[in-house]
Design a protein that fits this description.
mainly alpha; two-stranded antiparallel ribbon; 2 strands; 1% strand
Length: 487
Amino acid sequence: MAAPAESAPPASRLSGTLGVGSIVFMVIAAAAPLTVIAGTIPLGVGAGNGAAFPATFVLCAAVLLLFAVGFCAMSPHVPDAGAFFTYIRHGLGRPLGLGAAFLALATYTAVQAAVYGYIGAAIDELVASLGGPSVPWWVWTLAVVAIVGVLGYRHIELSSRVLGVLLLAEIAIVLVLDVVVVAGGGGPEGLSTALFDPVQIVSGEVGIAIMFAIASFIGFEATAVFRDEARDPQRTIPRATYLALVVVGVFYAVSTWAIVSAWGDVAAVAESGANPATFLLTTFENWLGPAGGLIVTILLVTSLFAAILAFHNVAARYWYALGGHGAFPGAVARTHARHGSPHVASLTQTILAAALVIVFAVAGLDPVAQVFAWMAGTATLGILLLMVLTCVAVLAFFARSRVDRRVWHTRIAPALGLVGLLVCLALTIRNFPTLIGGSTGLALAIGAVLVVVFVAGVVVALVRRPTEPLTATTPGEVREDTPRENA
């Protein structure tokens, strides 16, 4: 009798020499720093906890660092790429692991779709402002889909170099603003001190502030997805994870503080609440002149492009891992003979993205108010669910295997991270209609879709069992001579 498709290994494993810097570039690019500065900060300041919003980034970064402690401690014991779902599979079992894999793929596809909507509108606005023609947003977006598809088909090092250049440019322009504002002593009220005031930190709608802040870190966990392409994964992945979190957290907190200081506490809340779409552009024009406004408008587009490319690479590697795991046809797990890339998986993600853009266009959805808001909200909820499951998996894995007896790394930090993430998840669910800019009914529908996707993965795992299941020398420790699922 022929073996089930699940037992078929991929044609070859991915390989590469990515260092800490390259992986950090891709991860921070996925976080889209300038996009966060332009889109999240006005919402966090205007609708959240006001001028104290910078402190919210610090709080969320602290929670995610606690999560990262257990995540990185378990990394040497999870020899496969695949990030969340491989951790969950090793800690909580194969059915929940495959359910998480389906959920992760849907989540990264959603966030990529969100940014595809945004970039189409942003390019059209930029071209029109420069005197060019105004065309439907989806025309620009499909052109971007094609470019991303070409880069994703090639070796990962090419994407890394492209992302590195774009990322340095967008961070540089924000840092210029930060330096100018701080050197000038801030706006009419001087440099803001609200972020140091506990009363102001918990004032207003702090739940909404935390929800928007935690959404700004989406993508940092993707370091583990590039495990097979890292130069020294046991060192590179943990270092890249910690470095990405610290860099992003500090950048967001400092830049938000500088922007609030540029206006003054009261004026910043008023302006961001009244004109969230133009808040960043007006800030740059006020402090760096019209040229600064034009540069930041251009770099906003490149920031969106960098995020799309980064999330494309992550999603393609989920397709690749699931192909090797047998959940999808084995062809998806093939690597290109010349480029060493998961080219079939990349093409699959490109086709899916193009199909989603066409559906959104035919449905007549607004690219920002609907496509971006709905898909970004979906991704935020999905990522939080995955991180909660991963925390539980880390705790379960070390409690069962005893392969690492460091109490802080294997028990205390993951437990504290789990508590923090559960609070963030509860606040996100409570404020989810606000996050997606829609009704409670739409929020329930999106939540139901995520549940269905997760259950579908569990069902596939139960129906399609491997012919050679994992064995272990100790509970949770995979034997090196045992054929293992490439997932």
